[in-house]
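sanity check this chain:
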Amino acid sequence: MDYINYLEKEQPIAYKTFFNAFAKKKIFHAYLLSGEIGTPLLGIAKFLAASLLCEDPTPFACSKCNNCLRVNNENYGDLIIFGGKKETIKKENIEYLESEFSKTSLEAKGIKVYIINLVENMNEDSINALLKFLEEPSENTYAFLTTENEYRVLPTILSRTQIVHFNLIDKEVLIKEATDDGVLEEDAELLANFYNDAEKIKEETETQDYKDAKENILNLFKKLENKKELRFFIENNICNTLNTKPSVRYLFDFLIFFFKEAYTYSLEKNTIFKSYVKILEIINQNVKNLSDAILVLMDARNELNFNLNTSLLILHTLINIFEV
C-alpha cells in the first residue's frame, strides 16, 4: 500500500501532523492511532516506524531501503510488535519489551520502536506494566499504539500519548476502488464493511476462510424459509465446514452486517449494497427481532476470544437466532 498517498489523500490531518513532526524532528515519544474497524492502523504504525528508521527519509519512509524493507517484514532488530487482534496482550509481553529495550541498540540507527496493535485488548496487569514504561520512556524510544475503540482505552493511557484520529474512506468510494482493481462487486460490497483499504479487500477475497464463510452465509439465507432444511444445513454444513476461528469470526461478522443493513433497509428501502437487496428482504421476512439477534451475535463473537468449541458456539447461536 502507498501509505504516503493514502495519508495525504484520505487522512490529511494525520498526514500534516506526522509530516511536520518528522520534518522538524519533534517526535512525541508515544502516539495512539485511533480509527474505526477497517482502518489499516497496523500498516500505518509500521509505516511510521519505518519513517523513524529509514536510511533516507523525505521525511517519510522511502519504503525501499534495507531498513524500511526489514521493518515491513518485521525483522528489524530494534522493532518489537505486539498484536491484540487474535489474543490478549499479557504482562509477560510488556516485561519482554522492557527487558529488550533496556539493552544496547542492536542496530546502527540507535532508535528503538515498539508497536502495540489494538491496545484496548490488554489485561489489567499488562496495562499497569505499560503505564510505567510510558511514564519513563528511554531515550530514542518511540511507541505507536493503535485502537479501534478509543472508549475502551484507559484515560491513563490516553493522557500519556498523543492521539491521532483516522477517518474511514466512504464505502461507495472504497467499493469502486476495489472493483476497479478487479474485485467482484459482491465481494467488494461485503468486505467494505470490515476493511477500509481496497488492497486489503482484494487480498481477503483470496483467503479460504473468507470463501468458506461467504459460501455458507449465502446458502444459509437461501434456506431461511424452510426451518427443517435450515437446521440440517446449520448442523451438517456450517458447523463442519467452518472449523477455524477466522472463518467463524467472518460468519458472525457477516450475520451482524446483514442484520444491521436489513434493519436499515426496512426503514429506508435503500442500500448501497446492491448485490444483496434480495437477501435483505428475505431476512426482514424471516427474522423476528433483528436488534435482539444482533446482540446475541455480538456476544457470540466476543466468546471467540476464549478457548471454546466453535461448532457448539455456532450451533447454539444460530438455533437461538433462527428458532430452529
Remarks:
- Residues 207-322 form one domain.
- The longest strand covers residues 141-147.
